[in-house]
Amino acid sequence: MAEKDQIAGKTFESLEAMMLAYAEEAVRIAERDHGMNLDFSPESVSQLETVLAARSPIADDSIEHETKLWGGYFGEIFRRRYGAEWIMAIYPDSTRQASGGELAMPALDIRGSQLYPLLKIQRRLTMGPSEDLAAFFARVSTALDARIEESK
């Protein structure tokens, strides 16, 4: 069975279990294929960026799977840091809404704010280094930290 089919063919008890399975597979692939030890820490975002750069370009038929793998990992960094919860959410994209389509995807609920790590990873995979993960992580973390501090 192909690597991407091993997870895709499984049934999970929850969205969180599925996203964690993708994240753990990403950790295994990063170690096996790239010698990177991804440990779910904020500091590992730069290593994730290195792994994604090494994997580029991604074949069109692998984008969805790669997005789930690395988006699951990227999301888990935020989930663990902020006690977030994986949810299925409708992405607020006005162009899709105007055409009558909606895009539901795994997202994180972080104290009432929704974060779409898979979308960010998909943009990084398809648009390249201009979609820098470390800068994104820093911006989002600063905003979340400020929001948490204000609520104290």
How does this structure look, described?
The protein has one domain. The longest helix has 20 residues. A hairpin with a 2-residue loop joins strand 2 and strand 3. It is 60% helix and 12% strand. A three-stranded antiparallel β-sheet has the order 1-2-3. The mean pLDDT is 91. The chain is globular. The chain has seven helices and three strands, in the order H-H-H-H-E-H-E-E-H-H. It is mainly alpha-helical and 152 residues long.
Summary keywords:
152 residues, mainly alpha, three-stranded antiparallel sheet, 12% strand
> How large a portion of the residues is in β-strands, by DSSP E?
5-15%
Q: What profile does the largest beta sheet have?
A: 3 strands, antiparallel
According to DSSP, the number of beta strands is 3
User: Which structural class should the secondary elements be placed in?
Assistant: mainly alpha
- Helix % is 55-70%
What is the helix tally?
7
- Overall, the morphology is globular
Task: Tell me the number of structural domains.
Answer: 1
